[in-house]
Amino acid sequence: MSKTININNKKEVIILDQRLLPFKVKYIRTKDYKTVIKAIKNLSVRGAPAIGVAGAFAAYLASEKFKTLNNIDKLLEKKLNEIILARPTAVNLQWAVKRFLKILKNKEFKSLLDLKGKFLKESKKIYNEEKNVSELISKNGSRLIKNNDNILTHCNTGALATTGIGTAFGIINKSNKIKKNINLFATETRPLNQGSRLTTWEARKNNIKCFLITDSMAAHIIKTEKINIIIVGADRIASNGDTANKIGTYQLAISALYHQIPFYVAAPLSTFDLDTKNGQEIVIEERSSNEIIFLNNEKITNHKNVKNPAFDITPSNLITGIITEKGIIYKPNKSKIKKILT
Ligand code: MRU
Protein backbone atom coordinates (compact mmCIF):
# COMPACT_ATOMS: atom_id res chain seq x y z
CA MET A 1 0.00 0.00 0.00
CA SER A 2 1.36 3.42 -0.93
CA LYS A 3 2.41 5.58 2.01
CA THR A 4 0.05 8.47 2.56
CA ILE A 5 2.79 10.84 3.82
CA ASN A 6 6.46 10.46 4.71
CA ILE A 7 9.82 12.20 4.70
CA ASN A 8 12.78 10.87 2.70
CA ASN A 9 16.56 10.96 3.26
CA LYS A 10 16.80 14.24 1.31
CA LYS A 11 14.38 15.68 3.89
CA GLU A 12 11.66 16.11 1.27
CA VAL A 13 8.10 15.54 2.42
CA ILE A 14 6.30 13.12 0.11
CA ILE A 15 2.51 13.31 0.04
CA LEU A 16 0.29 10.90 -1.86
CA ASP A 17 -2.17 13.18 -3.64
CA GLN A 18 -5.48 11.68 -2.51
CA ARG A 19 -7.49 14.01 -4.76
CA LEU A 20 -6.41 11.94 -7.75
CA LEU A 21 -7.18 8.53 -6.29
CA PRO A 22 -8.20 5.89 -7.16
CA PHE A 23 -7.21 6.24 -10.82
CA LYS A 24 -3.92 8.14 -10.50
CA VAL A 25 -1.21 7.47 -7.93
CA LYS A 26 0.83 10.67 -7.86
CA TYR A 27 3.03 12.16 -5.16
CA ILE A 28 3.70 15.75 -4.15
CA ARG A 29 7.38 16.25 -3.15
CA THR A 30 8.31 19.35 -1.26
CA LYS A 31 10.76 21.10 1.05
CA ASP A 32 8.39 24.04 1.50
CA TYR A 33 6.06 24.09 4.51
CA LYS A 34 3.62 26.26 2.54
CA THR A 35 3.13 23.46 0.01
CA VAL A 36 2.25 21.11 2.89
CA ILE A 37 -0.26 23.69 4.19
CA LYS A 38 -1.79 23.84 0.71
CA ALA A 39 -1.96 20.03 0.57
CA ILE A 40 -3.81 19.97 3.92
CA LYS A 41 -6.23 22.69 2.76
CA ASN A 42 -7.07 21.10 -0.58
CA LEU A 43 -7.32 17.58 0.93
CA SER A 44 -4.36 16.07 -0.94
CA VAL A 45 -3.60 14.77 2.53
CA ARG A 46 -6.60 14.23 4.77
CA GLY A 47 -7.96 12.25 7.72
CA ALA A 48 -7.29 13.55 11.23
CA PRO A 49 -4.17 11.49 12.13
CA ALA A 50 -2.57 12.04 8.70
CA ILE A 51 -3.30 15.78 8.95
CA GLY A 52 -1.50 15.79 12.32
CA VAL A 53 1.56 14.10 10.78
CA ALA A 54 1.45 16.53 7.82
CA GLY A 55 1.39 19.41 10.32
CA ALA A 56 4.43 17.91 12.07
CA PHE A 57 6.41 17.63 8.84
CA ALA A 58 5.34 21.17 7.89
CA ALA A 59 6.64 22.39 11.26
CA TYR A 60 10.01 20.80 10.56
CA LEU A 61 10.16 22.31 7.04
CA ALA A 62 9.27 25.73 8.49
CA SER A 63 12.29 25.50 10.82
CA GLU A 64 14.53 24.82 7.81
CA LYS A 65 13.71 28.32 6.46
CA PHE A 66 15.89 29.94 9.13
CA LYS A 67 19.54 30.97 8.70
CA THR A 68 19.95 32.48 12.18
CA LEU A 69 18.41 32.24 15.65
CA ASN A 70 17.69 36.01 15.64
CA ASN A 71 14.06 36.57 16.61
CA ILE A 72 13.31 32.92 15.81
CA ASP A 73 10.87 32.48 18.70
CA LYS A 74 8.46 35.04 17.22
CA LEU A 75 9.10 34.33 13.53
CA LEU A 76 8.87 30.55 13.76
CA GLU A 77 5.87 30.74 16.09
CA LYS A 78 4.09 32.74 13.39
CA LYS A 79 4.77 30.02 10.81
CA LEU A 80 3.65 27.27 13.22
CA ASN A 81 0.39 29.09 13.85
CA GLU A 82 -0.09 29.41 10.10
CA ILE A 83 0.08 25.59 9.90
CA ILE A 84 -2.50 25.18 12.68
CA LEU A 85 -4.94 27.35 10.72
CA ALA A 86 -4.85 25.12 7.62
CA ARG A 87 -7.98 23.21 8.71
CA PRO A 88 -10.03 23.95 11.82
CA THR A 89 -11.87 20.79 12.89
CA ALA A 90 -9.37 17.92 13.18
CA VAL A 91 -7.63 18.64 16.47
CA ASN A 92 -4.70 16.38 15.56
CA LEU A 93 -3.26 19.27 13.56
CA GLN A 94 -2.93 21.59 16.53
CA TRP A 95 -2.08 18.69 18.85
CA ALA A 96 0.96 17.93 16.66
CA VAL A 97 2.07 21.53 16.02
CA LYS A 98 1.77 22.43 19.73
CA ARG A 99 4.55 19.94 20.42
CA PHE A 100 6.88 22.06 18.25
CA LEU A 101 5.65 25.28 19.86
CA LYS A 102 6.62 23.75 23.22
CA ILE A 103 10.17 22.97 22.05
CA LEU A 104 10.43 26.54 20.76
CA LYS A 105 8.93 28.30 23.80
CA ASN A 106 10.89 26.25 26.34
CA LYS A 107 14.08 26.85 24.33
CA GLU A 108 14.84 23.13 24.29
CA PHE A 109 17.74 23.65 21.82
CA LYS A 110 21.36 24.80 21.93
CA SER A 111 21.79 26.11 18.38
CA LEU A 112 19.88 26.52 15.12
CA LEU A 113 21.20 23.17 13.94
CA ASP A 114 20.07 21.58 17.19
CA LEU A 115 16.58 23.13 16.82
CA LYS A 116 16.21 21.79 13.27
CA GLY A 117 17.44 18.37 14.41
CA LYS A 118 14.96 18.33 17.30
CA PHE A 119 12.09 19.36 14.98
CA LEU A 120 12.99 16.60 12.50
CA LYS A 121 13.18 14.04 15.30
CA GLU A 122 9.83 15.17 16.74
CA SER A 123 8.10 14.95 13.35
CA LYS A 124 9.35 11.39 12.82
CA LYS A 125 8.28 10.53 16.37
CA ILE A 126 4.73 11.74 15.67
CA TYR A 127 4.72 9.73 12.42
CA ASN A 128 5.73 6.55 14.28
CA GLU A 129 3.37 7.17 17.21
CA GLU A 130 0.37 7.44 14.88
CA LYS A 131 1.48 4.27 13.10
CA ASN A 132 1.70 2.24 16.32
CA VAL A 133 -1.47 3.69 17.74
CA SER A 134 -3.58 2.69 14.73
CA GLU A 135 -2.32 -0.88 15.10
CA LEU A 136 -3.48 -0.93 18.75
CA ILE A 137 -6.87 0.63 17.92
CA SER A 138 -7.39 -2.00 15.22
CA LYS A 139 -6.48 -4.77 17.65
CA ASN A 140 -8.75 -3.43 20.40
CA GLY A 141 -11.68 -2.87 18.04
CA SER A 142 -11.41 -6.19 16.20
CA ARG A 143 -12.55 -7.91 19.41
CA LEU A 144 -16.00 -6.44 18.79
CA ILE A 145 -16.39 -8.08 15.39
CA LYS A 146 -17.93 -11.52 14.93
CA ASN A 147 -18.05 -13.97 12.02
CA ASN A 148 -20.69 -12.96 9.44
CA ASP A 149 -20.92 -9.37 10.70
CA ASN A 150 -22.26 -6.74 8.35
CA ILE A 151 -20.38 -3.55 9.17
CA LEU A 152 -21.20 -0.05 8.00
CA THR A 153 -18.60 2.71 7.85
CA HIS A 154 -18.45 6.30 6.65
CA CYS A 155 -15.76 8.39 4.94
CA ASN A 156 -12.20 7.01 4.83
CA THR A 157 -10.33 5.98 7.95
CA GLY A 158 -7.78 3.54 6.54
CA ALA A 159 -4.07 3.64 5.79
CA LEU A 160 -4.68 6.74 3.68
CA ALA A 161 -5.96 8.66 6.71
CA THR A 162 -3.20 7.57 9.10
CA THR A 163 0.41 6.43 8.92
CA GLY A 164 -0.55 2.88 9.89
CA ILE A 165 -3.39 0.44 9.20
CA GLY A 166 -6.12 2.98 10.00
CA THR A 167 -8.68 3.48 12.77
CA ALA A 168 -12.26 2.37 11.97
CA PHE A 169 -11.10 0.84 8.69
CA GLY A 170 -8.08 -0.67 10.45
CA ILE A 171 -10.47 -2.55 12.74
CA ILE A 172 -12.47 -3.81 9.76
CA ASN A 173 -9.28 -4.79 7.91
CA LYS A 174 -7.87 -6.69 10.88
CA SER A 175 -11.21 -8.40 11.58
CA ASN A 176 -11.48 -9.47 7.96
CA LYS A 177 -8.21 -11.38 8.36
CA ILE A 178 -9.29 -13.27 11.48
CA LYS A 179 -13.05 -13.66 11.10
CA LYS A 180 -15.17 -15.34 8.45
CA ASN A 181 -17.54 -13.71 6.01
CA ILE A 182 -17.25 -10.06 6.98
CA ASN A 183 -19.26 -7.70 4.75
CA LEU A 184 -18.46 -4.03 4.65
CA PHE A 185 -20.92 -1.35 3.56
CA ALA A 186 -19.15 1.92 2.71
CA THR A 187 -21.01 5.18 2.19
CA GLU A 188 -19.85 7.26 -0.77
CA THR A 189 -19.45 10.31 1.53
CA ARG A 190 -20.61 13.27 -0.53
CA PRO A 191 -19.46 15.80 -1.54
CA LEU A 192 -15.81 14.72 -1.82
CA ASN A 193 -16.44 11.00 -2.05
CA GLN A 194 -13.80 9.75 0.36
CA GLY A 195 -15.91 6.58 0.66
CA SER A 196 -16.41 5.76 -3.02
CA ARG A 197 -12.92 6.88 -4.14
CA LEU A 198 -10.74 5.87 -1.19
CA THR A 199 -12.44 3.32 1.09
CA THR A 200 -13.51 1.02 -1.75
CA TRP A 201 -9.95 1.28 -3.14
CA GLU A 202 -8.47 0.26 0.20
CA ALA A 203 -11.09 -2.50 0.56
CA ARG A 204 -10.14 -3.98 -2.83
CA LYS A 205 -6.44 -3.84 -1.99
CA ASN A 206 -7.11 -5.69 1.26
CA ASN A 207 -9.59 -8.25 -0.14
CA ILE A 208 -12.48 -6.98 1.96
CA LYS A 209 -15.92 -7.69 0.56
CA CYS A 210 -17.30 -4.19 0.30
CA PHE A 211 -20.58 -2.79 -0.97
CA LEU A 212 -20.62 0.85 -1.95
CA ILE A 213 -23.80 2.75 -1.08
CA THR A 214 -24.84 6.40 -1.34
CA ASP A 215 -25.17 8.34 1.92
CA SER A 216 -28.94 8.52 1.57
CA MET A 217 -29.23 4.72 1.42
CA ALA A 218 -27.81 4.24 4.91
CA ALA A 219 -31.00 3.84 6.98
CA HIS A 220 -32.56 1.55 4.38
CA ILE A 221 -29.40 -0.59 4.17
CA ILE A 222 -29.08 -0.79 7.97
CA LYS A 223 -32.58 -2.26 8.03
CA THR A 224 -32.61 -4.44 4.92
CA GLU A 225 -29.04 -5.77 5.05
CA LYS A 226 -29.19 -6.30 8.80
CA ILE A 227 -26.15 -4.22 9.66
CA ASN A 228 -24.76 -5.44 13.01
CA ILE A 229 -22.41 -2.60 13.84
CA ILE A 230 -21.42 0.89 12.66
CA ILE A 231 -17.82 2.05 13.12
CA VAL A 232 -16.57 5.51 12.13
CA GLY A 233 -13.55 7.71 12.80
CA ALA A 234 -13.33 11.11 14.50
CA ASP A 235 -11.80 14.52 13.89
CA ARG A 236 -12.21 15.91 17.38
CA ILE A 237 -13.69 14.46 20.55
CA ALA A 238 -14.74 17.01 23.16
CA SER A 239 -14.10 16.37 26.86
CA ASN A 240 -17.69 15.07 27.32
CA GLY A 241 -17.40 12.62 24.40
CA ASP A 242 -19.32 14.63 21.78
CA THR A 243 -17.61 13.76 18.51
CA ALA A 244 -16.96 15.69 15.32
CA ASN A 245 -16.60 13.50 12.25
CA LYS A 246 -17.34 13.67 8.54
CA ILE A 247 -20.71 15.18 7.66
CA GLY A 248 -23.30 12.41 7.68
CA THR A 249 -21.99 10.68 10.81
CA TYR A 250 -24.68 12.12 13.11
CA GLN A 251 -27.53 10.70 11.01
CA LEU A 252 -25.84 7.27 11.13
CA ALA A 253 -25.71 7.42 14.94
CA ILE A 254 -29.42 8.30 15.06
CA SER A 255 -30.18 5.43 12.70
CA ALA A 256 -28.13 3.05 14.84
CA LEU A 257 -30.15 3.98 17.92
CA TYR A 258 -33.46 3.51 16.08
CA HIS A 259 -32.38 0.10 14.77
CA GLN A 260 -30.81 -0.86 18.11
CA ILE A 261 -27.36 -1.60 16.78
CA PRO A 262 -24.08 -0.45 18.34
CA PHE A 263 -22.43 2.74 17.08
CA TYR A 264 -18.66 2.94 17.71
CA VAL A 265 -16.14 5.71 17.14
CA ALA A 266 -12.50 4.67 16.64
CA ALA A 267 -9.87 7.32 17.34
CA PRO A 268 -6.43 7.85 18.82
CA LEU A 269 -6.04 9.81 22.06
CA SER A 270 -4.52 12.58 19.92
CA THR A 271 -8.06 13.26 18.64
CA PHE A 272 -9.41 14.10 22.13
CA ASP A 273 -9.56 17.75 23.10
CA LEU A 274 -9.98 18.38 26.82
CA ASP A 275 -10.01 22.14 26.18
CA THR A 276 -13.31 21.76 24.34
CA LYS A 277 -16.20 21.21 26.75
CA ASN A 278 -18.74 19.82 24.30
CA GLY A 279 -19.69 19.53 20.66
CA GLN A 280 -21.16 23.03 20.50
CA GLU A 281 -17.66 24.45 21.02
CA ILE A 282 -16.16 22.54 18.08
CA VAL A 283 -15.54 24.67 15.00
CA ILE A 284 -17.08 23.01 11.95
CA GLU A 285 -15.21 23.65 8.73
CA GLU A 286 -17.45 25.20 6.06
CA ARG A 287 -16.01 24.43 2.64
CA SER A 288 -16.58 26.00 -0.77
CA SER A 289 -20.05 25.62 -2.30
CA ASN A 290 -18.27 24.62 -5.54
CA GLU A 291 -17.76 21.16 -4.01
CA ILE A 292 -21.54 20.73 -4.23
CA ILE A 293 -22.61 22.70 -7.29
CA PHE A 294 -19.99 21.12 -9.55
CA LEU A 295 -20.02 17.43 -10.44
CA ASN A 296 -17.13 16.09 -12.55
CA ASN A 297 -16.07 19.70 -13.20
CA GLU A 298 -19.50 20.51 -14.60
CA LYS A 299 -21.85 22.97 -12.99
CA ILE A 300 -25.09 21.20 -12.09
CA THR A 301 -27.04 24.18 -10.78
CA ASN A 302 -26.99 27.99 -10.76
CA HIS A 303 -28.39 27.96 -7.25
CA LYS A 304 -26.59 30.40 -4.95
CA ASN A 305 -27.72 29.43 -1.43
CA VAL A 306 -25.64 26.39 -0.56
CA LYS A 307 -24.35 25.03 2.72
CA ASN A 308 -21.30 22.80 2.86
CA PRO A 309 -20.29 21.89 6.42
CA ALA A 310 -17.53 19.27 6.20
CA PHE A 311 -18.28 17.73 9.61
CA ASP A 312 -21.10 17.21 12.08
CA ILE A 313 -21.33 16.50 15.79
CA THR A 314 -22.56 13.23 17.21
CA PRO A 315 -23.59 13.71 20.84
CA SER A 316 -21.85 11.32 23.23
CA ASN A 317 -25.13 9.72 24.33
CA LEU A 318 -25.50 8.20 20.84
CA ILE A 319 -22.06 6.58 21.03
CA THR A 320 -21.84 2.99 22.30
CA GLY A 321 -18.10 3.26 22.80
CA ILE A 322 -14.92 5.01 21.68
CA ILE A 323 -12.19 2.59 20.63
CA THR A 324 -8.73 3.96 21.48
CA GLU A 325 -5.21 2.60 21.72
CA LYS A 326 -5.72 2.30 25.48
CA GLY A 327 -8.98 0.35 25.25
CA ILE A 328 -12.67 1.02 24.69
CA ILE A 329 -14.49 3.79 26.56
CA TYR A 330 -18.07 2.51 26.86
CA LYS A 331 -20.80 5.13 27.27
CA PRO A 332 -18.21 7.91 27.06
CA ASN A 333 -18.44 10.80 29.50
CA LYS A 334 -16.21 13.48 31.02
CA SER A 335 -14.78 11.44 33.90
CA LYS A 336 -14.05 8.32 31.81
CA ILE A 337 -12.34 10.43 29.14
CA LYS A 338 -10.28 12.37 31.68
CA LYS A 339 -9.20 9.09 33.28
CA ILE A 340 -7.99 7.51 30.04
CA LEU A 341 -6.08 10.65 29.04
CA THR A 342 -4.14 10.94 32.28
O1 MRU B 1 -12.34 15.88 5.36
P1 MRU B 1 -11.57 14.64 5.69
O2 MRU B 1 -11.50 13.66 4.57
O3 MRU B 1 -10.21 14.96 6.28
O4 MRU B 1 -12.41 13.96 6.86
C1 MRU B 1 -11.97 12.74 7.40
C2 MRU B 1 -12.85 12.18 8.45
O5 MRU B 1 -13.85 12.76 8.81
C3 MRU B 1 -12.39 10.92 9.11
O6 MRU B 1 -13.47 10.14 9.49
C4 MRU B 1 -11.57 11.27 10.36
O7 MRU B 1 -10.61 12.25 10.08
C5 MRU B 1 -10.87 10.08 10.91
S1 MRU B 1 -9.55 9.47 9.89
C6 MRU B 1 -8.86 8.16 10.73
Describe how the helices and strands are arranged.
Blueprint: E1 5-7, E2 13-16, E3 27-30, H1 33-41, H2 48-63, H3 72-84, H4 92-105, H5 112-142, E4 150-153, H6 168-178, E5 183-187, H7 194-205, E6 209-213, H8 218-224, E7 229-232, E8 236-238, E9 243-246, H9 249-258, E10 263-266, E11 272-273, H10 290-293, E12 294-295, E13 298-299, E14 311-314, E15 321-324, E16 327-330, H11 334-341
Parallel strand pairs: 4-5, 4-7, 5-6, 7-10, 8-11, 10-15
Antiparallel strand pairs: 1-2, 2-3, 8-9, 9-14, 12-13, 15-16
Bound molecules: 5-S-methyl-1-O-phosphono-5-thio-D-ribulose (MRU).
Structure notes:
The protein has 342 residues and is of the alpha/beta class. The chain folds into two domains: 5-135, Four Helix Bundle (Hemerythrin (Met), subunit A) (Up-down Bundle), CATH 1.20.120.420; 142-341, Translation initiation factor eif-2b, domain 2 (Rossmann fold), CATH 3.40.50. Helices cover 39% and strands 17% of the residues. It has eleven helices and 16 strands. It has helices at 33-41, 48-63, 72-84, 92-105, 112-142, 168-178, 194-205, 218-224, 249-258, 290-293, 334-341, and strands spanning 5-7, 13-16, 27-30, 150-153, 183-187, 209-213, 229-232, 236-238, 243-246, 263-266, 272-273, 294-295, 298-299, 311-314, 321-324, 327-330. The strands form four sheets. Strands 6-5-4-7-10-15-16 form a seven-stranded mixed sheet, with helices on both faces. Helix 2 runs antiparallel to helix 3 (72-84) and helix 2 (48-63) packs parallel to helix 4 (92-105). The longest helix is centred in the middle third of the chain and has 31 residues, at 112-142. It is globular and about 65 Å long. The chain starts with a strand and ends with a helix. It binds 5-S-methyl-1-O-phosphono-5-thio-D-ribulose.
